[in-house]
Amino acid sequence: MSAPSQAEHKPSELDALLLAIADGIDALVAWDIAAFQSAAQRQSELCTRIASRSVSPRSAADITAAIQVRKLTRIYARLLQHSIHWTHTLRTILQDSGHISPCHGSVHFRG
Amino acid sequence: MRVNPNYSNDMVNLMDQAQQAEDTAAQQLSTGRRVSLPSDDPAAESAMIAENSRATAADQYTANSDSLKDVLNTANSTLSSVVTLLQRAVSLGVEGANGTMNQTDLSSIATEVSNIKGQVLALANTSYAGQYLFSGTANTGAPYATDATNPQQIDYAGNSQQNQVQIGTGLSVSANLPGSSIFSQSGANVFDALQSLVTALQSGTSSSIATAQTSVSTALGAVDTAQVFYGTTVNELTSNETYLSQEKVNIATYQNTLVSSDTASAATQMTQAETALNATVAAAAKINQVSLLDYLK
Amino acid sequence: MGLTSDLNVSVQSLMASTEAMDVTTTNMANINTPGYARRRVVLEESAPSGTDQSSTGVDVKTIQSLRDSVLDLSINANTSQQNLNSTISSALSAVQVVFSDTASGSIGSSIDSFFNSLQQLSTSATSGSLRSNVLTAASNVASAFQSTASVITQAQQQADQSVVQSTSDANSLLQQIADANAQISSAQNLGQSSNSAQDQLSGLLTQLAGIMDYKTVNSSDGLTLTTADGVPLVVGSKAYSLTNQLNSSGYNDVYAGSTDITATIEGGNLGGYLQTRDQTLSTLSTQLDQFAYQFASAVNTVQTSGSDANGNAGTALFNPPDTTSGTATGAAASIAVALTSGSQLAAAATGGASGDSSNLTQMLDLQNQSLINGSTPTEAFSNLTFDIGDTISQATSNATATGSILTQLTNQQGSVEGVSLDEESSNLLLYQRSYEAAAKIISTVDTLMGNILDMGVTNPGY
Fold first, then answer.
1. ipTM higher than 0.90?
2. Is the CB of residue C396 less than 8 Å away from at least one CB of chain B?
3. pLDDT tens digits, one per residue of C48-100
4. Do A71 and C397 touch (CB under 8 A)?
5. B154-171 pLDDT, tens digit each
6. At A95, is the secondary structure helix, strand, or coil?
7. How far is C-alpha C201 from the chain's CA centre?
8. Which of C99, C127, C414 sits opposite B2 (nearest CB)?
9. What is the residue extent of each domain of chain C?
């Protein structure tokens, strides 16, 4: 498949935000705290810049990018929520080390 | 916490995602649409449906407007012909009333006026595209006919109703003017007036000719005034058509924002997706070669 | 520490690392066996010897074991969620096509064309050909309802077939789980290793989770599996039989033994097929019937309050509904045009003149009236489009999110060698704090994107 012609579209702040969120997801999946913190930092900086610039007129590229960011954010938020819950669960287990009786109990997760 | 050495499931997952991203980007590039299915963007899709409805309605209103203009313009030019005939009748009446003509000439003028009456009758009964123009809403039948018992009397068989045609949401215009508001208004009946002039000319009395000529004048004025409806309505339709074409442009522009893909970013996404897919495939190939020693580090 | 202690520590370390190598080799060989749980090399610090209290006894085995159980449970629960969502997404994919804006012969576009044909007729109410066009447009509306109803029914039937297949698959897994339980139980009774059966059981539990959600309880009987609300599926070495029985809608319900568990299954493929069949598509079907019924009723009411081209009172344009049928059920599948000639269209008011179009005006007004449960016909169709698109979009998004969660959890299945529990606990605290801080950014992103997108909510040209 031949590469498409050179895009005139220069990466916008929204594209960069999309990338930062994707990096956040990758970092969460790999339990890489350094990469995660770096991605979160970038997200925060980009938000500040996007908030400060005027949003009109909106281009078709802006709309496309904003919709993609929204979609990816939903996934990121879910994964992050899970990660917070999971680390908390593990901490609870570890902090009670030695005081937890062998596997006895039912746990039903409803995702 | 460490990365799982069981890479194969992760790789398959990543490759699936990368392939899917590339497929999506390719489709967007080729269709020019970012949104093809409701699940792509439910809000955009449901807005598209509403806008399609507006767009097709605007097309229909424009078509209605065109059809109606044809009818109205035909009626308008018919009435212009009637006005011309009535003006001729008036000047004949003026001539006849000045007392200088002999009876032979007066009889001759009477015949001409009688012919005018017949022509006006025919014009009043004009039909266009299968409908009589001046019958009100009873437009399957001719509006005017000679009375059965009195051949000099013309009766109106139509009604005084007007049909409405929509040219926009909540916007409609009257599509016709009944004959009873044009030719046979009370106190200004064109046929009665013409008949009275014929009779007066045949009698030869100057004063009655003058009276009859005045009544034809009055009837002419009434027709003239009534005719304004057609020109005014056509103007309204024309200016509405301008509004409708602007509305179509607005709709098309909006629909573009809703669902069209920006070619440049679609191309970029395509490139990125391809790169990601290639990288994932390469990584998968590499990992399968990991040795036990690497694993132990 | 004295020299002897050093030597002891060294020897012990050496032995431990040899063992570690053996374990690693076994791990690699079994890497493709589903559910193979890595033999964990857990380093137990030796108990303090003599008066030297320099090392404390920390038994990590129990902690690991608990953590692994929780990990397995979470992986299984997320597997259920992922399969639920991806199943919903694909089961509905054929149905959403008929609701897209480009679908030809859709309900939305055919209703638009119907009203357009009435508009056209209003310019020349007596025209035979324009009247005929209206009947054609009306029958296209009927066809659109019928074909949409048919697509929905087909999807329900396919989901139903999948319910039967999934029930059978689950039934087989329950039996295998019961067998694994029996093996584990007897091995333990004989004081033998049950590792292999445990691994097998672990794999079976994940497979089952992919089909349906369930609860597990470990007790003296061994492993017990129940539905979410406690109906037993497996108790120790006994498996309950999963079967299907036809319900009053003609679709298959799921039974565990003699108990109907259909309504309680909310995860896995089976949960996805059931939800699609019994909720999403069932609701859509009802809404479609109401749409057809209310639309046809409104048109019929106007039609019967006017006069046709022959001066007779207008009769119903659509059937159903007719005056005798009172229920909307099945309306979308059976709606049809009842008139046979365009001359039967009641364009004129009752007693109106031959060319009167005032009843047509009434019929045209329907396009902007709230006929369908408070919505105009176009709004009703566009709402259905949004609903199904949103359901699929959410399911797809959830499936992707759960997929990421599963990968993340799988990445937890590594050994933690030589990291003290205190150290790990403080690492976890760092992670938790970082995650919580990052969570705040998400709502900012949401607001910003909302600002960019909300400007396009209504057509700026109006």
1. no
2. yes
3. 344 443 333 335 667 777 788 889 899 999 999 999 999 999 999 999 999 99
4. yes
5. 999 999 999 999 999 989
6. helix
7. 27
8. C414
9. 90-383
